[in-house]
Design brief:
Family: Belongs to the GAMAD family.
Number of helices: 3
CATH architecture: 2-Layer Sandwich
Pfam family, one: Robl_LC7
Oligomer: single chain
Order of helices and strands: HEEHEEEH
Protein name: Roadblock/LAMTOR2 domain-containing protein
Radius of gyration: 17 Å
Strand content: 25-35%
Strand order of the largest sheet: 2-1-5-4-3
CATH superfamily: Dynein light chain 2a, cytoplasmic
Length: about 120
């Protein structure tokens, strides 16, 4: 019976996929073990897990040094590049990392699609 009830994690992932630009996600525990991933190879997911957890550890360390409680807790990180945006959220012993295409990358793709339509 429990398997028929919607899983809270699955619900969150389903909602994230509705966002324009959604590309991939990785769920890992805080030991760096990849639990679930989509739209990337396993090797890439493990690589992201290692880098993300290192970034989270260092971010928490420096935020705690810079700010006094209660303003020194890190709930999420957002890393933006020219091509994509990485959103990282930790809760308990788990970390969710979502990759989405940046607005710039999405507008480039739309321009290319429009140009191909005009050529046809």
């Amino acid at each position: 019976m429990a398997s028929q009830q919607p899983n809270e994690v699955e619900e969150v992932i389903r909602e994230l996929k509705k966002n324009p630009g959604f590309d991939a996600y990785v769920i890992m525990n805080n030991d760096g073990i990849v639990i679930k991933y989509e739209n990337m190879e396993y090797k890439t997911a493990v690589h992201h897990a290692h880098l993300v957890l290192d970034l989270c550890t260092k971010s928490k360390k420096y935020i705690r040094e810079l700010f006094e409680p209660p303003d020194n807790e890190v709930e999420s990180l957002r890393l933006r590049t020219a091509d994509y945006e990485m959103i990282i959220a930790q809760h308990g012993n788990f970390t969710l990392t979502v990759l989405q295409k940046s607005q710039k990358a999405m507008s480039k793709k739309e321009t290319v699609v429009e140009e191909k339509k005009e050529e046809a």
